Amino acid sequence: MLINNAAIHYDTGSRALLPDWTDIREAFETNVFGAWRAASAFAPLLGAGGHGRLVNVSSEGGSLASMGAGAPAYSTSKATLNALTCVLAAELRGAGVLVNAVCPGWVATDMGGPGGRPVAQGAAGIVWAATLPDDGPTGGFFRDGKRLPW
Ligand SMILES: NC(=O)c1ccc[n+]([C@@H]2O[C@H](COP(=O)([O-])OP(=O)(O)OC[C@H]3O[C@@H](n4cnc5c(N)ncnc54)[C@H](OP(=O)(O)O)[C@@H]3O)[C@@H](O)[C@H]2O)c1
Fold first, then answer.
1. What pLDDT score was predicted for residue 42?
2. C-beta of 57 in contact with ligand 1 (< 6 A)
3. Who is most buried in 29, 77, 93, 127, counting CB within 10 A?
């Protein structure tokens, strides 16, 4: 299994029309290209056993269905990660690799700050996606094992 968890720049105070290109480029470098590179590098191993699992840790902030103003670098990079999830799921379907995006919810980490759910609770939905049975879903977007709108 591969879990692409790393992400940066939850830029809630920023606006898309006053772009901080450094933040935006850095966010895409880690949140999208980092996950993309890791997926590409590990795909042969994931496919080798016929039961690979790839989880892109995303965010409902990347959902086009509820996209609003604010956090432009973060939300557009997570929307792109969601798109990548669909493409990878299609490319890896024949190799038995299930690829899904998971939002952990608001979690009390360095990024989430105080007040969020405990880390174990946020991680549970990621573990669920990383340990799906062979007939489990692929190419989906989930939180706590339940589908989220793209
Ligand atoms: N916390 C929330 O409320 C929340 C909500 C929705 C989604 N998420 C998602 O959940 C995931 C985990 O977030 P978090 O809350 O745990 O964030 P966090 O507290 O800021 O931790 C981010 C982690 O990513 C690592 N990282 C950042 N850039 C990296 C890079 N270029 N290469 C390798 N590692 C890198 C950091 O490593 P270092 O410590 O070494 O820098 C750190 O361990 C992210 O994908 C985030 O978008 C979080």
1. 98
2. yes
3. 77
